[in-house]
Amino acid sequence: MSVIIPVYNEAKQIGSTVRSVTENLKAAECSYKIILVDDGSRDSSWEQISLLSNNDHDITAIKFSRNFGKESAICAGLERASGDCCIVMDADMQHPPSLIPGMIRLWRDEGFEVVEAKKTSRGKESWINKFGAAIFYSLLKRLGGYDLKNASDFKLLDAKVVTAWRSMSEHNTFFRAMSAWVGFRRITIPFEVAPRDIGKSRWSFLKLSGLAVNAITSYSSLPLHIVTILGVLLLIGSLIIAVQTLV
Ligand code: UDP
Ligand code: MG
């Protein structure tokens, strides 16, 4: 199996995350490779990642030429993934590696093709992020029909799901929604978001807002219909005014 970890400025954290992931993979008794995708980090993450991959053949390192964002890092990892399944998770230990053996068990013994870890709560965050997330998820649910509240990017995907993912030629991906859109036999497991050990969230409110607009316009055609409706309303309005002017 492959474990994909997007990394952006996680130099201080990545070593211990990889250690913990490795321990849990070994506990699950499966052969694995860990794919670390450096998303154009500006600290010494790449040095750490190279060191890790030089010392361990089961670790593959990918380096982006600049910061393309987490979604792109996940895509690059999924492109390189091999084996019978893959796991996508964060580098900052907010996705507990101790869940890995359980996720593998659900896939291997019970035949689930997607195992999604769902947050029991959103953890500590600013009120603006909490408020923004509430609006975003309720809009996405109403317009696109996807209930992704408390969903996370911590997921196990069967190789079939990865093949389906690869066959879609999306440019602006939203992993959380796209991995729901493809379907397959799925199960959700709860997890408590651990507070970030080191550093702070790499997402600015602006970056998150961009992702939100992108997700809503990708999963709902309502914004397009609004343009049509506005066009029709303007047409009716101008016809009325034209008649009034002629009279
Ligand atoms: N990340 C990334 N590129 C970015 C921002 C974040 O690859 O531009 C990675 C980051 O290193 C971490 C994961 O995505 O492994 C989640 O990021 P973060 O913890 O900052 O987000 P949050 O937990 O606040 O959602
Ligand atoms: Mg985090």
Salient structural properties:
247 residues, alpha/beta, 9 helices, binds uridine-5'-diphosphate, binds magnesium ion
Would you kindly provide a written description of the structure presented here, covering whatever features stand out?
With 247 residues, the protein is α/β, with parallel strands linked by helices. The protein contains nine helices and seven strands; from the N terminus they run βαβαβαβαβαβααβαα. A seven-stranded mixed sheet has the order 3-2-1-4-6-5-7, with helices on both faces. The chain is elongated and about 85 Å long. Magnesium ion is lined by residues 90, 92, 94, 196, 201. Uridine-5'-diphosphate is lined by residues 6-8, 10, 39, 67, 69-70, 73, 90-92, 94, 201-203.
Tell me the Rg in angstroms.
21 Å
User: How many extended strands?
Assistant: 7
Measured distance between first and last alpha carbons: 75 Å
Average pLDDT, all residues: 88
* Low-pLDDT segments, ≥5 res: none
Give the biggest sheet.
7 strands, mixed
The portion of residues assigned to helices is: 40-55%
Strand content: 15-25%
SSE order in H/E notation?
EHEHEHEHEHEHHEHH
Q: Which word captures the global form?
A: elongated
List the ions, cofactors and other small molecules found in this model.
Answer: uridine-5'-diphosphate, magnesium ion
Structural class: alpha/beta
Tell me the number of helical segments per DSSP (H or I, 4 or more residues long).
9
- Strands across the major sheet, in which order? 3-2-1-4-6-5-7
